[in-house]
Amino acid sequence: MQSDHAAKVMAFLERHRLPPSPQNYTLAYIALNDAGSPMGRAVEAIIAEGYRIKQDEADEIFDRHGGIAIFGSQERNDGELTAHLRHQAIKLGELASSAADATGAFARELSEEAGAFSGDSSNTLSIVARMIEQSLDTQTRLTAAMDEVKALREELEAARHDAQRDELTGLANRRAIDGYLGELAAKGEPRIIALCDIDHFKSVNDRYGHNVGDRVIKLVADTLDDACSPHFVGRWGGEEFIVVIPSGEAAAAVKLLDFARSELADKEFKLRETDEPMGLISFSGGVALATGGAEANAASLRQADQALYRAKAAGRNCILCA
Known about the structure:
Largest sheet: 5 strands, mixed
CATH architecture of the largest domain: 2-Layer Sandwich
Helix content: 55-70%
CATH topology of the largest domain: Alpha-Beta Plaits
Number of strands: 5
Strand content: 5-15%
Strand order of the largest sheet: 2-3-1-4-5
Structural class: alpha+beta
Distance between the termini: 44 Å
Shape: globular
CATH superfamily of the largest domain: Reverse transcriptase/Diguanylate cyclase domain
CATH class of the largest domain: Alpha Beta
Number of helices: 11
């Protein structure tokens, strides 16, 4: 149940393009689970007509309705996660220390047994048997320790991977997107940034419900990921996606996005319950070129967003360049 709440909160934040900070997470949680509260009503007043809530609006609502007191409890949740990771690190250290102790003890036992060798063959055989038994015991303990270290490493790797992925689509989330754009900006290499938005998505949700809406989002995500491979594709938020191409060729990027758009338009999407065709599922896109550092990313995102809205105004289901 807790994971379901978390997934809905993260989806809310992505839909409204809000970063998943403790404060925003708390605001979204209250808006979704206590809509009748003062904070919940304030959020609903903004988003009721389909508008996105902006960060400054979220900050104002949070401060006005006493969010600071709630914020402290969320920070404690973050502390629990940090404590868990610290515990895992300590456990790894203990396992390594245990393995080293076992190896050292075995070496000392071998030295002691070596001094007890004599010409008596029965005594020699007894010593060798004990040495073999100690060797097998040490090997078993070392193998168990290595297996546990491997399991812990895989658990931490999976947690790190999940923190970079959108739960619904499996695409890169905002944290991963920001990181990748930051890497490209640091290199100073030109890159194409494209924003794509599913056409008439609100009407899909209104008519068929959010479950069908989620399936449409997943369909568009898979189509973009397949068509634009091996380039970077992420979920920008809600029904919006981002494609980043390390290139300075805007025309080639428009052509690639147009190919993805046509691939999606050719697919037949039906309701599972009734097998009723839903008609055309399409997206519009805006493409912009970024050159330079982090400022260039911000400027190109704005330009891509403007081109996207021009594509919407031009009738949708098309890709335009800034």
